[in-house]
Sequence to fold (141 residues):
Amino acid sequence: MSAASTETSAPLPTAGSRVFFQGAPGVGCVGSGPITGDDPVQKKQGKVTVKYDRKELRKRLVLEEWIIEQLSELYDCEEEEMPEVEIDIDDLLEVNSDDERASKLQESLIDCYKPTEVFVRELLGRIRGMRKLSAPTKKGL
Fold:
């Protein structure tokens, strides 16, 4: 066909030639070598999520899903088509008064052409009593 297909390439190594790398003792990537039952990285991996408050995480997830559903209705579009709207629940929880929270929310929804007062009021009611998510606490130490 073309001249490029007739060019020769470098010869491939034979099946018997292999390259092995051997690191110095104590040096290397975590998890290199065989996995043993006493590997500390393997043991800690499963415990990480246990330290978070799962009930609070579940509440937050349900709230975020509700927010997305409500924003879809306000903007009359699917989530993928929705304009960039940032509602940070932790930021709202840091604010002391509902009036300040409402004004922050109204600023985020400035581009919405539909009335947003009902959404803001419902969201403020839903976050009442929630806690700001923080880093996981160490239990049992």
